[in-house]
Amino acid sequence: MDLVCNDDWKGSDWMKKIFSLILALMLLLTCSSSLAAKKVKATPTPAPVEISADPQDPPALIQHMLDIAYQDWVDVNGKDQGKKNKYTTWYNNYNWGKNRWCAGFVTWCMLEAGIPQAPEKELKSSCEEGTAPEAIYHVKGSSPAKMAPGYLYMNRTTNIPQRGFIVLYGENSNKYVHVGIVYDVSLLPDGKYRLTCIEGAMKNTVRMFVYDYDAAAEKKKNIILLPEEERTQEETKIFTYKQHGKGWYVNCFLMPWVPGQTEE
């Protein structure tokens, strides 16, 4: 039998191969898009907020926290708090050692006041899922380096101080060396601020600092000592006008509350 070449059959076979190749490419592209979509994470919320340069009155819950911090400063009265103290009890009573519980003090004051809060990892997860935090909210951190990222996830950092904000200090190249509570803020005629801060783990006790802060200055030069003639209060073991340490500066302020977004 002679073999016969069937042109119709050959054309049909060629078209089937082209169709199969196109289908395979479409499936590949669909799968690739699906995998890429799964890898994309939601951006943190909310968007950064603008803060008025003028000092604002804090909401009642934040004022309650400030009252707790102040009363504790009075009650401690400069006593050495040892290696393990009440400011570390919320963190499984962990022994942080002397002068290492500044974030513990801040978080303890927030907890005592009943301010809603969550650890940094938990907050990161909720922000990635697009869940906005409450208007009054704190990052339950055991150190400045664990506390600050949580506020960054919420986009609640600023260079403008307000009462009840948390001051984050840097020292030379270390941007997360210490935290304290901004107890009072005054806007000076030259645009600078006079801050009164209550801070734990300074000389292993609770101390109050008063100094001037220049938001417009180079970051590592933004802490200014008060002129001698303006130092009206006697310095003691619990109160001082002195600078925290050589190379210290205000990195930024963390915002447990957002002016204009809270109700009394």
Describe the structure.
There is one protein chain. With 264 residues, the protein is of the alpha+beta class. It has one domain (60-254). The chain is 31% helix and 21% strand. It has five helices and ten strands. It has helices at residues 7-39, 60-76, 102-113, 120-128, 144-153; strands spanning 117-118, 138-139, 157-158, 166-171, 174-187, 193-202, 205-213, 223-224, 239-240, 248-254. The strands form two sheets. Strands 3, 4, 5, 6, 7, 8, 9 and 10 form an eight-stranded mixed β-sheet that branches. The protein has a two-stranded parallel sheet with strand order 1-2. The radius of gyration is 28 Å and the shape is globular. It starts with 6 loop residues before the first helix and ends in a 10-residue tail after the last strand.
Q: What's the arrangement of secondary structure elements?
A:
Layout: H1 7-39, H2 60-76, H3 102-113, E1 117-118, H4 120-128, E2 138-139, H5 144-153, E3 157-158, E4 166-171, E5 174-187, E6 193-202, E7 205-213, E8 223-224, E9 239-240, E10 248-254
Parallel strand pairs: 1-2, 7-9
Antiparallel strand pairs: 3-10, 4-5, 4-10, 5-6, 6-7, 7-8
Number of distinct beta strands: 10
What gyration radius follows from the Cα positions, in whole Å? 28 Å
User: What gross morphology would you assign?
Assistant: globular
Classify the beta-strand content into a percent band. Answer: 15-25%
**SSE arrangement, N to C:** HHHEHEHEEEEEEEE
**Percent range of helical residues:** 25-40%
| Largest sheet properties | 8 strands, mixed
User: How many separate helices?
Assistant: 5
